Amino acid sequence: MPAIASYTLLPLPQNELSAHFTPQPGEPEHPELRCGHSKDTKTDTNGLSVLQRTKAEMRRSQTILRQLSRVRTSHGSANKMAQNDTIPIKDYRLGNHDVFYVPNFLSVEEERYILHTRLTKTEMEAISKQKATNMGWRDHGQRVIPAKPPVVYDSLVDRLKKTGVFVQSPHQQPNHVILNEYQPGQGIMPHQDGPKYFPVVATVSLGSHAVFNYFRYKAEDVEAEDGVGKAVEEVPMLSLLLEPRSLIVSCCDMYTSNLHGIDSLEEDNVFPSVPAMTVSAKENLSLNWVPGGVTPIDNWEMLGDEVTKQFVAKGAVLKRGTRYSLTFRDVERITSAKSFKFI
Ligand SMILES: O=C(O)CCC(=O)C(=O)O
Ligand SMILES: [Fe+2]
């Protein structure tokens, strides 16, 4: 499992930031938006407690967000999505799979803002001890998150609503978000998210890429190696390159019947998959497929960044940086997966 670093709640004071994401050459430097993480202290250098400073930071975050809404970016698609009434999610479907890949779902500014405002685990715990009120957001272990997520989350939830993927969920929108942190070399074992959630999961990637694999279970009569549970195919049925700022949605059968995971690697060796490539074809092509070997990327034609696309098209080794993911779900499950379809 990756470390669950924190929930993004409130901005950190500038003086506690350490350089984390350095602006690319030629990129305008925006002092408010430099990303970083705080030292694990309960008070800042002015002796303010986390709760005291959060009010001031909240006001500051509102100002930044107002500025952000005026920023014009070259990543037009995120801005267009923010303005449109609906996002045609069907246009982003991966073949016939219950999987949707949307590049540039977030703008560069939103990505930076979210990374800038995340709290550390220690800060989260410091706030929890002070028993602030529950605003309805929960963390992975179902502890209550005692503060309202910043406004940028509202706009992300709004944008997710516009895709229609949560239209049949109990609250018609996600009510739960997890922020995971993956250092290069970290991944997440193949797993299912389980019946606690409505069978739609929407994940936004930030900071770096991941290769996200979906796996089938082996036939009923094949036992797992450890004799516990069902055996899982070693070769992924699908592998997607998740670019920073992209959205991936898994639902329906993909949610209820298959597993997903990310290999624990420092770099991903990728090449383009061809349409309708079967698992056995992939196995042959990948020559003695091993986890972390060469991975055919099924969404390479849908990639948003032209340079990345060209690299993947030729075959490339992509070095991982620190990746964060925000996973949105609706917790209370009242509709059965079988009767649910938005596609
Ligand atoms: O971080 C990701 O992209 C996936 C996380 C995940 O699968 C989970 O939290 O259940
Ligand atoms: Fe998961």
Automatic annotation (TrEMBL):
Residues 27-43 have a biased composition (Basic and acidic residues). One of its GO terms (cellular component) is nucleus. It comes from the Eukaryota. Residues 173-332 form the Fe2OG dioxygenase domain. PROSITE patterns: FE2OG_OXY. Residues 17-45 are annotated as: Disordered. Keywords: Dioxygenase, Iron, Metal-binding, Nucleus, Oxidoreductase. Signal peptide: none annotated. It is found in: Nucleus. GO terms for molecular function: dioxygenase activity; metal ion binding. PANTHER family: ALPHA-KETOGLUTARATE-DEPENDENT DIOXYGENASE ALKB HOMOLOG 6. Belongs to the alkB family. This is Fe2OG dioxygenase domain-containing protein.
